[in-house]
Amino acid sequence: MIIGTKRDQKVGQKLVYDAAISVNAKLSSMIHHKAWNWGHARSDDLVTTLSRLPMIDFDEFDKAVWISSKLGSFSLANAWDQIRLRSSALNWWRIVWFAKAIPRYAFITWLAMRERLSTKERLASWGISCDMLCVLCRASIQYRDHLFFKCSFSQRFWRKIKSLCCQEDLDDEWENLISLGEKHWKGKNLSADCCRLGFSVVIYHIWAQRNAILQQGTARTEEQIVGIIK
C-alpha cells in the first residue's frame, strides 16, 4: 500500500506532510524491527493519529477485509446494499405483496403501480405510432388511470368483483383507491385479504383482456371473466 493516496481512507495528504515522508512511501518503509517507525511528529494531529495506531501483530496472516461490513466479512446482501440506488419508501407495497398474493396477479399489479404497463399512452411516448383509443371502450385515450377504472368495461368488471368481495363502497378512482388501500388494507385479516386479492385480480384480467383484443382480436364479457375467477 502506498501512503497518502486517495484510495487510503485513513491516511491523508496532511499526515504525509506532517510526517515528512514521500507521498510515494510504502507501508513497509514505516516499519522497523516489527514496530512503527514514523520519526518525529510535527503536529498535534499526527501525535494523536500515531497514538491510535494499533500494535503490529506479525504472527497473524494478512487477510482481506470488507470495510463496508462491521464484521469485515463479505456478503452479497451487503454488497448490494452498497451499490443499489436508494429512494423513499413506498407505502403501497402491502397492497401488492402479502402472504396470500398470487404471483402472476401481484406482478402485473406491481407494474401498474409503477406505471410500467405498456399502455398506448406509454407506447406513443416512446415514438411508436398507434391508435391511442382504449380497446375496451373506444371512448378515451388508453392510459393507466383510464384502464383502472375510468373505462366503462373496467368499471362494470370492478363492480362485479367488489360485489363478490362484499366491498361495494370501494372507489373507482385510482388515486383514491390506493390511498384507501395504504391506510386500511393491512395485516392478515379477511377483509384486507379480500380487498387486495380482488384488486389484483381485476388489474390482471383487465390487462389480459386488453392484450387479448390487441394480439388475438378476441374478447370476453365481464360475466365470462368472473366465471373464470370463480
TrEMBL record:
Q: Which InterPro entries match?
A: RVT-Znf
All residue ranges annotated as the Reverse transcriptase zinc-binding domain in the record: 74-158
Q: What is the name attached to this protein's record?
A: Reverse transcriptase zinc-binding domain-containing protein
What organism is this sequence from?
Fagus sylvatica (Beechnut)
Q: What is the lineage of its organism?
A: Eukaryota, Viridiplantae, Streptophyta, Embryophyta, Tracheophyta
